[in-house]
Specification:
The structure holds 2 protein chains of 2 kinds. By secondary structure, chain A is mainly beta. Helix content of chain A is 7%, strand content 38%. Chain A has one domain. Chain B is α/β, with parallel strands linked by helices. Chain B folds into 2 domains: 284 residues, Divalent-metal-dependent TIM barrel enzymes (TIM Barrel), CATH 3.20.20; 57 residues. Helix content of chain B is 40%, strand content 14%. In chain B, the strands form 2 sheets. Chain B has an 8-stranded parallel sheet. Chain B has a two-stranded antiparallel sheet with strand order 8-9. In chain B, helix 2 runs parallel beside helix 4 and helix 5 packs parallel to helix 6. Chain B is globular. The chains are: A mainly beta, B alpha/beta. Chains A and B meet through strand 3 and helix 2 of A and helix 1 and helix 3 of B.
């Protein structure tokens, strides 16, 4: 669901620290019809201009908090990400991106459920690899994003 | 008497795009749906900052519901078994979540609280005394592909029988059933087929091919159409949602007789309301057996709500803004159909006389 709308198209920007570009970020919403506990965020498949990024390179900026790693998010077991709220996926990339159009492949992986499932125990130990399971959108979604 | 309501789930796309909020949705239900007065919500969509909404929201909610004369029918809740990530939620933790949601439902005036179909009875048993104290009926959703009549060896095949046995054994009036119309879906849903086709076809071609496939159901059985589709569009049957495309009904409308006393609410699931040829202003949901089901509910004197649950938008969000369906219009059409079918007491279902 929301294949064409998971990423806001005018949201791409470089992330700067001490005057240096250290990465980029873009705005996303949940691929869902409801909000979820933040702990259920398992990760994001991010492919920018043909480069796939590791989960260790990603942080999520949500609920007015500084960017948090996937491990930090997994511990936010009582904090909710509401359906209507935007968050920024931050991606570490020293130097950031050049100005112009970039091609993003994106798919979130979340572990929200309809109750007990056969894979529950397995997912505690081995969560699905983002891009290969978890969530209500079925395929990687592609976006042309312009960095101004 | 059959009452009509709307699950605000139906307006999820408007929530996502901020084009409607819950107040807009309540006004729409109260003013444009020919007398519908029931409201169902998804707790984690409508309640801001769930599970800890500001107290002002609760006042605001009750005020707005009273303003429009609406009834809070059902609150839908979820059990995210991996919420804690380092272990699968225990039954005690599951029951805690249910009990927390029961209190929220009570504060917002709801009569029922819908559970997912995978909530274990061990958790239900723990939460039940609170449900009785608060006088809220917990309902187990009967969702496709679950049957009503037990089917041994199938996933969820025995769930309804389990529930009925529990209700009869305990005599509780605070645990019951909530069938989803999707269990009576006996033809494929066109919008989902079109979505799957767009993975390898243009929007226009997918539209035409999906209509062709669905039309074939007028003359062919589900196996024949599946075979035809597999041969004509091999890629269609390899996609991630292939198993959902040509699924038959998991229950028969007649099965409703066996569980009628335990039904506290019904999900009026639908995917696409289309105009009936030759009948301007009248609509139908071609994949669902609404006429039969409503006839049976009338026959039994079902006293409860059917809440619209529009789901077709989810399969049409891969194009552009221009390809998005109009949820408001779809729900209005759904209520045209339901009001007409509910009022039609002349319909005779010969099948059920035996």
């Amino acid at each position: 669901m929301y294949d064409s709308f998971l990423v806001r198209r005018d949201s791409l920007q470089n992330v700067c620290k001490d005057g240096e570009a250290v990465g980029f970020k873009f705005a996303v919403q949940l691929a869902n019809y409801r909000g979820i506990y933040l702990s259920l965020v398992n990760g994001f498949y991010v492919n920018m201009d043909g480069v796939e990024y590791d989960q260790d390179d990603l942080t999520l900026e949500v609920n007015g908090q500084p960017p948090r790693t996937m491990t930090e998010l997994s511990k936010a077991v009582w904090e909710h990400w509401d359906l209507q709220d935007e968050a920024y996926v931050n991606v570490r990339k020293p130097g950031g991106l050049e100005k112009g159009t970039h091609k993003l492949g994106y798919l979130p992986s979340t572990m929200d459920a309809y109750g007990y499932q056969a894979h529950d125990e397995e997912w505690v130990k081995n969560p699905p690899k983002p891009g290969a399971g978890g969530g209500k959108t079925f395929r990687v979604c592609w976006f042309d994003l312009e960095l101004k | 008497m059959i009452h009509r309501g709307v699950s605000l789930y139906s307006y999820q796309q408007n929530e996502f795009f901020h084009t409607m909020n819950w107040k807009d949705e309540l006004r729409e239900v109260a003013t444009n749906l020919q007398g519908a007065d029931g409201i169902e919500i998804i707790s984690e969509c409508t309640i801001p900052h769930y599970p800890f909404p500001p107290e002002s929201f609760i006042y605001d909610w009750n005020n707005e519901m009273a303003r429009w004369g609406l009834k809070a029918v059902t609150m839908d809740t979820y059990v995210d078994t991996l919420q804690f990530r380092n272990h699968v939620m225990t039954f005690e933790e599951c029951a805690e979540r249910l009990m927390y949601d029961l209190r929220l439902a009570k504060a917002m005036g709801f009569r029922n609280m819908r559970l997912c179909h995978n909530v274990p009875m061990d958790a239900v048993r723990i939460a039940l005394p609170l449900a009785e104290e608060l006088d809220i009926r917990m309902t187990n959703e009967i969702h496709a592909p679950s049957p009503i009549v037990p089917v041994e060896g199938e996933e969820f095949g025995e769930t309804v029988a389990r529930d009925v046995a529990f209700i009869q054994m305990t005599g509780t009036k605070h645990y019951g059933l909530q069938p989803d119309m999707g269990i009576f879906q006996n033809k494929p849903n066109r919008v989902m087929i079109a979505y799957a086709l767009r993975a390898f076809m243009s929007i226009e071609d997918a539209d035409a091919a999906s209509r062709d496939l669905v039309d074939r159901f007028d003359e062919m059985g589900i196996e024949e159409v599946t075979e035809y589709a597999t041969k004509t569009y091999p890629q269609l049957m390899q996609g991630p949602i292939a198993r959902h495309l040509f699924r038959g009904a998991s229950a028969k409308p007649l099965d409703l007789y066996s569980i009628m006393p335990y039904i506290y609410c019904i999900h009026g699931k639908f995917y696409e309301m289309t105009e009936i040829p030759g009948k301007p202003g009248q609509y139908e949901e071609k994949s669902m057996q609404y006429a039969k089901v409503i006839n049976i509910l009338n026959d039994c004197g079902y006293d409860g709500y059917i809440d619209s649950e529009y789901e077709g938008q989810r399969s049409q969000q891969d194009m552009g803004y221009e390809g998005l369906p109009d949820e408001v219009e779809q729900v209005r059409r759904h209520h045209e159909m339901m009001a007409r079918l509910i009022a039609d007491k002349s319909y005779v279902n010969f099948e059920m006389k035996f």
